[in-house]
Write a structure and sequence with these properties.
Order of helices and strands: EHHEEHEHHEEEEHHHEEEEE
Strand content: 25-35%
Radius of gyration: 17 Å
Bound molecules: glycine
Largest sheet: 9 strands, mixed
Distance between the termini: 32 Å
């Protein structure tokens, strides 16, 4: 069986390169997905995840992460976590208990410290300067004004799948706010017997559609990854338009258990993919007509300005 890794945004490209090398060397889907995400968590140039992440309304960086093992359906998640290097690694470690899989705030931090996870002050001088410039501007924030989640979906050569996510969440968010990312079913979902999905965009809207689980259920009903991603995003977009009179920035990646991928999006959305038959490749997805998504291969990454 082949392997595949699919991840959100241009910022994931280096991580997809490293993850695909691991998968080629017979690593597990979980190890590959976590490596993919940690490349971004550790890079302060990417301002919406991990080190150098976007501060909340009080100028503090609180991180969210989630992980699901598609073989066992076990999951772990952390929310509103301050002062640690890798929310996705902490989330992954929480999946093996029968209880207490989703920890937030001080409880999550106490767990991470007791379990020996690496600590780190994620507020860099650059993220503090950004906060000082923008603080108080909470009323007109839009998700993609510098806010997005890294999601990684992996399939290994044994047919095991997983989903992992990590984000600093909405810029200048209220203290204690959680988005979709650490919420199983909304931000991420994986079932090795079917496929995996993960979302990025406005968490409050993504949760209304329970978007990742919805896409995996569409896969289960026989849709291709592309059909499942497009349908899930189109339906949520229509529901938001009809009931609330608005559209939102939402993107969804879907990986089938055969390694094929699909994407649904309401905006221009770069993503990265690699498999046993395809080298790491950057793609650009755009919302087309009739709820379809138009995907183009990016020949020159420098032409994609959005991380
Ligand atoms: N999608 C991430 C968030 O809304 O926090």
């Amino acid at each position: 069986m082949g392997y595949a890794i699919l991840s959100t945004w241009k910022m994931s490209f280096q991580g997809v390169c490293e993850a695909s090398c691991l998968l080629k060397d017979h690593a597990s889907a979980g190890d590959a997905a976590v490596r993919c995400i940690q490349c971004t968590e550790d890079n302060p140039a990417f301002v919406s995840v991990g080190y150098g992440g976007l501060p909340d309304e009080n100028g503090r960086v609180f991180l969210d992460g989630g992980f699901m093992d598609g073989d066992t359906l076990k999951f772990g998640a952390v929310g509103a976590l301050e002062g640690f290097r890798s929310p996705v690694a902490i989330a992954r470690s929480l999946k093996d208990s029968n209880f207490n899989n989703f920890l937030v705030g001080k409880g999550a931090e106490a767990y991470a410290e007791a379990a020996g996870f690496e600590k780190r002050d994620n507020l860099t001088p650059e993220s503090r300067a950004r906060y000082l410039k923008d603080k108080g501007k909470t009323q007109n924030l839009f998700s993609y004004d510098g806010h997005d989640t890294i999601c990684a979906l992996a399939l290994d050569e044994n047919g095991s799948m997983c989903a992992g996510v990590s984000t600093s969440g909405l810029y200048l968010k209220k203290a204690g706010r959680l988005g979709d990312s650490p919420v199983i079913g909304s931000g991420f979902y994986a079932d090795s017997a079917i496929g995996a999905a993960a979302a990025t965009g406005v968490g409050e809207e993504i949760m209304k559609g329970v978007l990742s689980f919805r896409a995996v259920m569409y896969l289960r009903s026989g849709m291709t990854p592309m059909q499942a991603a497009e349908t899930a995003v189109r339906e949520l977009k229509e529901d938001l338009a009809n009931r609330l009179g608005r559209t939102s920035s939402i993107s969804l990646i879907v990986l089938g258990n055969d390694g094929t991928f699909g994407v649904g999006t309401t905006i221009e959305f770069p993503f990265a993919y690699a498999s046993d038959t395809e080298p790491p490749t950057l793609y650009l997805a755009n919302a087309g007509s009739d709820g379809r998504t138009v995907i183009t291969r990016v020949e020159d990454p420098a032409t994609v300005t959005q991380d």
